[in-house]
Write a structure and sequence with these properties.
The chain is mainly α and 138 residues long. Helices cover 47% and strands 0% of the residues. It is flat, with a radius of gyration of 31 Å.
Length: 138
């Protein structure tokens, strides 16, 4: 693995890869003796596992169908209730279908439509000045 990385670095010219500790490993753990052998399953065991998998799939499909049915029933009940409310009072209906923007706390930060302002001082952290301690590898 290390040889391959060095070869790629050589091909790319200026090495720009950062050292990663996960690449360092003890070669003794990659011996053939540590690999698990494939289980030799009998035909009956393979058939039993296949049938078990089919039963599990049917079970999960039934649960999914039941949950979907419950959701659809709830949506239909809600729609009927809203129709009854509208027949009773249009004002109450409008209040019921009004969006509540404070129901869940939502704070969205994303890309802005403008490029960054040159020379703008980065936002201060809560504890004071922000000091960048990122290691630079070259």
């Amino acid at each position: 693995m290390v040889k391959r990385l060095l070869k790629v670095q050589h091909k790319l010219g200026e090495p720009d890869l950062k050292p990663v500790e996960e690449f360092m490993y003890d070669p003794r753990i990659l011996t053939e003796a540590r690999k698990r052998p494939d289980p030799n399953l009998t035909f009956e065991e393979e058939e039993r596992r296949a049938l078990l998998q089919k039963k599990w799939n049917k079970y999960r499909a039934a649960i999914h169908a039941e949950e979907t049915h419950q959701i659809e029933t709830a949506k239909q009940s809600q729609q009927r209730a809203l129709e009854e409310l509208r027949a009773e009072s249009e004002e109450l209906y409008q209040k019921a279908v009004e969006k509540d923007f404070f129901l869940f706390p939502l704070d969205i930060k994303g890309p802005t439509c403008t490029p960054p302002i040159k020379g703008y001082k980065e936002r201060l952290s809560l504890d004071g000045e922000y000091v960048d301690k990122t290691k630079q590898f070259k």
